[in-house]
Amino acid sequence: MNYFNMQYTSGAAALGAIAATAIYYYLHPKNENLIRTWKAVGNVTKLHLHPLKSGRRLELTSADCTDVGIRQNPEDQEGLQLRDRTYLVYGEKNNEFKTARTFPQLLLVQMSVHDKDQIRLDAPGMPTLLFKVPTKLKNKELRVKVHQSEEIYSIDCGDEAANWISNYIHGDSTPGLRIGYHDGSMKHRRNILKIYKSFSIYKNLTNKSAGLYSDLSAVLLVNQASVDDLNDKLREENRVVSENFRSSITIAGEGAPAYAEDDWEWLKIGEAVFRNVKPCTRCIMTTINPDTGVRNPEREPLKTMETYRRLKNQKPNKEREIITTMGISMEVNVPGVIRINDTVYIA
Ligand SMILES: *[C@@H]1O[C@H](CO)[C@@H](O)[C@H](O)[C@H]1NC(C)=O
Ligand SMILES: *[C@@H]1O[C@H](CO)[C@@H](O)[C@H](O)[C@H]1NC(C)=O
Ligand SMILES: *[C@@H]1O[C@H](CO)[C@@H](O)[C@H](O)[C@H]1NC(C)=O
Ligand SMILES: *[C@@H]1O[C@H](CO)[C@@H](O)[C@H](O)[C@H]1NC(C)=O
User: Using alpha carbons only, what angle is made at residue 113 by residues 273 and 98, rounded to the nearest 5 degrees?
Assistant: First the structure.
């Protein structure tokens, strides 16, 4: 290649790069800061979808990351796709949500897709229940009270689902539990800032961070090395699995030693880009075995985590509290498909 050609080619390459950048900015006007140097730190090892809040996981090989959380990939699940934490159990009397914190056996309720318009519920000792995805035209709309008295939009799933879940938890249908559904409509997105902005550990949250019925953010990531490190500190009978931490994404890799995730800011996996918006604060739920629904009698692993995974939080009323963390809560900045074994990049 002569000098002219070389100049011409590098000129064309430069023009191409400028054009690509311009197209990128055009497509992602709000994400101009996403042109970064990415470093591979590990791989995706597990993708878990929890369609029912506090319910059992579905194990996926790929997932579609949407603004409000992961969803089954239409390539793997035709017709109807379940989305993370779109259903929840609530009390009929006061519309307050119920979780495995009070009813540990909820952890064994498996929700899955039956066909193109029916959801399936299974639990130990219960007949399978099929019900249609509720719609606001046919079912009652309400607001369910969750943490911090936040109220979130919901569509009731009907009497059959209500009787089924009440029978499973209470053995009869009288102390009325019901199931609510979030259709994901933008009109009903949460204003989490109103409630959480004044907590000191939540400074990086935005309204866009919110999931549907997740405690707070759209996606939770757990690093296997951190779980392994915790297990090294626990007696054998108290050891846990990553499933105790109910993440959507579990990762492992050479560049991801225990707790490295605490300091990551941006992550890229497959087509998707995420921002770490806060550490995930941990509660008694981590002490319940995810496969048996039985609580650890010694309150492990929380007791041990409280000794070395502590963070100070200052609440709006100036009250200080010590919180315990594991994993990171992420906001989805560029939605897209992610897969098991995808490389995890950080910047
Ligand atoms: C957050 O969203 C709510 C509505 O969903 C809106 O009223 C509020 O102004 C938003 N806050 C910010 C800071 O964007
Ligand atoms: C917010 O994000 C910045 C940049 O990643 C980080 O340095 C800071 O510690 C974060 N603040 C909180 C309270 O998490
Ligand atoms: C991802 O997994 C492959 C295969 O197990 C491994 O060779 C590679 O080192 C992993 N990547 C990172 C960044 O750890
Ligand atoms: C992930 O990679 C491992 C080998 O590193 C392989 O055994 C496994 O089948 C892969 N899983 C998927 C879902 O591709």
Answer: 80
* Gap from CA of 320 to ligand 2 centroid (Å): 19
- DSSP-assigned letter for residue 20: H
- For 42, residues 6+ apart whose C-beta sits below 8 A from its C-beta are 223, 251, 252, 253, 254, 255, 256, 343, 344
90 within 8 A of 154, measured Cβ to Cβ: yes
Distance of CA 282 to the CA centre of its chain: 14
DSSP state, 342? P
Closest ligand, as measured to the CA of 345: 3
Which ligand 4 atom minimizes the distance to the CA of 61?
13
Specify which residues 141 forms β-bridges with.
Answer: 155
Position in ligand 4 atom list of the atom nearest CA 339: 13
Three-state secondary structure call for residue 173: coil
CA distance 212 to 177: 20
Pocket of ligand 3 (CB under 6 A): 40-43, 253-255
Output the tens digit of pLDDT for each of the chain's 347 residues.
333 343 444 445 555 555 555 555 555 555 545 578 999 999 999 999 999 999 999 999 999 999 999 999 999 999 999 999 999 999 999 999 999 999 999 999 999 999 999 999 999 999 999 999 999 999 999 999 999 899 999 999 999 999 999 999 999 877 699 999 999 998 999 999 888 877 888 889 999 999 999 999 999 999 999 999 999 999 999 999 999 999 999 999 999 999 999 999 999 999 999 999 999 999 999 999 999 999 999 999 999 999 999 988 887 777 888 899 999 999 999 999 999 999 999 99
Ligand 3, residue 43: give the atom nearest the CA.
1
Q: How far is the CA of 289 from the centre of ligand 1 (A)?
A: 37
Pocket lining: 191 vs ligand 1, CB cutoff 6 Å: yes
